[in-house]
Amino acid sequence: MSTERTFIAIKPDGVQRGLVGKILKRFEQRGFKLVAMKLCMPGKEHLEKHYADLFSKPFFAGLVEYMNSGPICAMVWEGLNVVKMGRMMLGETNPQASLPGSIRGDYSIQVGRNICHGSDAVESANHEIALWFKPEELMSYDSCTAKWIYE
């Protein structure tokens, strides 16, 4: 079985609204393994690097300012197809298009306050994980529940 890792961040609105535990619970209940987590305020320069692909968009400056406005819960999750499944669990970027049952469908209304960021591909996940975490911050361990989750 080949597993992968994804980067998930609970944005300042999710942290301020006390949704960290509820979001963690969803990923744990799904069966994914948490391998890194920290609460941080990384600063404007770091956030500009993270969102560099959106630099030319008119909302870029506001996005960086917003993301720099409060604590972020940065996480790395591991599991089979975790990038794709993580995106499905988050829901559409625009919460108005997100189905009930998804994180954004259940907890957010506007795209500018959409609770979470999730990597959109394995390559971007690897890049984002390296940007947010040092190698020694990533845990490697055998989960005692793996035999009950995977065949």
Automatic annotation (TrEMBL):
**Which Gene3D superfamilies does the UniProt entry name for this protein?**
Nucleoside diphosphate kinase-like domain
Q: What is its EC number?
A: 2.7.4.6
Q: Which UniProt keywords apply?
A: ATP-binding, Kinase, Nucleotide-binding, Transferase
Q: Where is the Nucleoside diphosphate kinase-like domain?
A: 3-140
- Active site, per annotation: H117
Cite the Pfam families for this sequence.
Answer: NDK (PF00334)
Q: What class of enzyme is it?
A: transferase
One GO term in the molecular function aspect is: ATP binding
Show the catalytic activity. Answer: a 2'-deoxyribonucleoside 5'-diphosphate + ATP = a 2'-deoxyribonucleoside 5'-triphosphate + ADP; a ribonucleoside 5'-diphosphate + ATP = a ribonucleoside 5'-triphosphate + ADP
Please list the cofactors this protein needs.
Mg(2+)
SUPFAM superfamilies assigned to the protein according to its UniProt record, in alphabetical order: Nucleoside diphosphate kinase, NDK (SSF54919)
Q: Which GO terms describe its biological process?
A: CTP biosynthetic process; GTP biosynthetic process; UTP biosynthetic process
Listed binding positions for ATP are K11, F59, R87, T93, R104, N114
> What does the similarity note say?
Belongs to the NDK family.
The entry's protein name is Nucleoside diphosphate kinase
Gene source species? Oikopleura dioica (Tunicate)
Q: What is the lineage of its organism?
A: Eukaryota, Metazoa, Chordata, Tunicata, Appendicularia
